[in-house]
Amino acid sequence: MDYQRDIITMAVVNFRVKAGDKEANLSRIADMSRAAAKRGADMILFPEMCLMGYDYFTDESIPREEKLRVTETVEGPSTKRIEKVAKEEGIYIIFGMSEKKEENADKIYNSAVVLGPEGFIGSYQKIHPFGSENLWCAKGKDPFMFDTEWGPVSIGICYDNYQFPELLRYYVWKGSRLHLNPTAVIEERPNEGSRHAFVRCYAPHLEYGVLSSSVYIASSNMTGYDMDSYFAGGSMVIGPKTNAFDEVEVTTYIGDRNDYQAKMFIGTLDLSLAVLHQCEDNPYGGGPDYRPEIYKKLFDEIG
Fold this sequence. Notes:
- The protein is globular and about 60 Å long.
- By secondary structure, it is α/β, with parallel strands linked by helices.
- α1 packs parallel to α4.
- Helices cover 27% and strands 28% of the residues.
- It has a single domain, classed as 4-Layer Sandwich (Nitrilase/N-carbamoyl-D-aminoacid amidohydrolase).
């Protein structure tokens, strides 16, 4: 696949959400996006569910009717406001929000909306809701990529990326060199005092994605307290150190997995290093080592 550009300046965010306060969170998203653009960023990624907060939708004391009321379509007023920023600043902005569709307004999706220099692009609905998320959000069913001058950019949300490598490999096979992970990874839950989810699920799974698929992964997480949960920050962009077939190694290019501070990280990436050799013709074997026709048979058998 031919790409117009290899060099991209990317921003990721440790986002401190104000639980249930859409206006405050929108202002933060807008202000940080403008600040990122002024520092030369081409794209900025915000976390999962950062428009209202993650706990707002998991809190069973908040009636579902209220959750439906605050949920918008992806071309609603919140998206329109951030779309204006994206167009004025010439930057791609991706942020997490609850979404409902006009044709089925009683369902809520855990979504990521994508806005660009030309305006609204689209949204991705989380395919794999995690645990009790299934009590409030419907399952998405479609992968989502959006075209840019750096080639197609792909999205998975949180659990999509930690336990389901099939999705990332699909995206890379379709040409993605940059994969986005808006996430809400908890450092500890009330009365547990454990970094269980963060230590077990965050960096190791993303690093495996780089090792197995030679792709850059940009991850933005919430930080600090939401309503009850304490989020771990650690936003970063990781990717391959070289493009050599036998020297796959993970490098952190932007951010810091150990940084808890509410802040934005910006850096420049060379996407030409994202080369999945297994999808190219093997000079000794005559075709790619990656064999989707075989995997299709296997999945058809268990599906």
